[in-house]
Design brief:
Layout: H1 4-13, H2 17-29, H3 31-37, H4 45-60, H5 66-75, H6 84-101
């Protein structure tokens, strides 16, 4: 928790999608502690939108972490080195193909 905001800001500034998603997932899983220990005053507004999206995604889809998505994609034989959106799209496409063939 001590350096998660630094990691998040670094990932955002360097366009490191995986690091950014892992940091977001960590904050989302530990939101109560994060609210108590992290000052988001200097964080860009875009990060706040991304953080809210992460919380909403966790609550509505059950596909909360990039790690979970990568595990599912790997078990399906899919490429795991993609963004969250690409992984979700690949998994959905795979599921649609399975439904059509069954």
């Amino acid at each position: 928790m001590d350096n998660i905001l630094d990691n998040l800001l670094y990932a955002d500034s360097k366009n490191c999608a995986l690091l950014k998603e892992v940091a977001m997932d960590f904050i989302t899983r530990n939101k109560v502690e994060a609210m108590e220990k992290i000052t988001f005053i200097d964080a860009p507004g875009t990060l706040m939108r991304d953080l809210l999206a992460s919380v909403a995604r966790r609550e509505t889809t059950g596909l909360s972490t990039i790690v979970e998505l990568r595990r599912r994609a790997h078990s399906e034989g899919l490429d795991i080195d993609d963004s969250r959106d690409m992984l979700v799209a690949a998994l959905r496409s795979r599921n649609l193909k399975k439904q059509r063939t069954s």
